[in-house]
């Protein structure tokens, strides 16, 4: 099979109606990469989207404008906060509530890498990665917990990684953070179950973003060769799964870690 045969066909996916109309979604790290694709997808299907960013203000405004100006019911606004900073998150919560009211869907997407083999890993690089991916998810989920527990069909969707399952040379910090999100999701799902709100985790394999562009070409080729589908994921594929999980239709899926890795661990 050629990789092209498995690639997504966006022309086949025009929404015939707006299943997320009336849903308010917050996407952390929505300014670039996978988060940007998720924000666009949710907006395309009618959601009101709060596009969180840390420093990429222009990019966040661009994606928000793109969603609002598209010929759909979706609208969007950028909201600044470093997910490691609880004071900034509190200010973001107030801004989101003032503009939209409570959120229905939280997408914990913000994440970074600071790679280095274990013996060369500085405590700063260890903490930086865990702070954004794991503590950032804790901070944002706790800040919006009351919303998510109260609304109908509340959703917490967290972007982990295949590295959380498999580990990777040079990524002990990233793997620890991403596998921590599995246990976080399962426990949160149990605590939220009474309210009908679900919590799920997506574990994508390598996905075409700046994070992957930064990997040298030769190593990218080696990585691709290990993937049964022979290609990296497209952002739109991760975003499409988030869109489904954000919808009311996904209500019987909770506490799951959903793999999306081209068959790499089969
Ligand atoms: P990018 O580097 O392309 O984008 C990262 C996003 O996270 C940016 O919008 C950035 O905002 C935001 N961000 C980073 N730190 C913070 C912070 N402290 N507070 C708020 N926002 C922050 O990454 P990807 O799109 O590639 O990755 C997105 C998620 O997907 C991450 O959690 C990553 O671990 C995961 N993932 C990625 C894979 C891949 O192959 N790309 C594979 C599997 C999982 P700003 O620009 O404003 O700083």
Automatic annotation (TrEMBL):
Keywords: Oxidoreductase. Coiled coil: none annotated. Residues 1-24 are annotated as: Disordered. Residues 23-205 form the Ketoreductase domain. One of its GO terms (molecular function) is 3-oxoacyl-[acyl-carrier-protein] reductase (NADPH) activity. GO terms for biological process: monocarboxylic acid metabolic process. Residues 1-14 have a biased composition (Basic and acidic residues). Its EC number is 1.1.1.100. Belongs to the short-chain dehydrogenases/reductases (SDR) family. NCBIfam families: PRK12826.1-2. This is 3-oxoacyl-ACP reductase FabG.
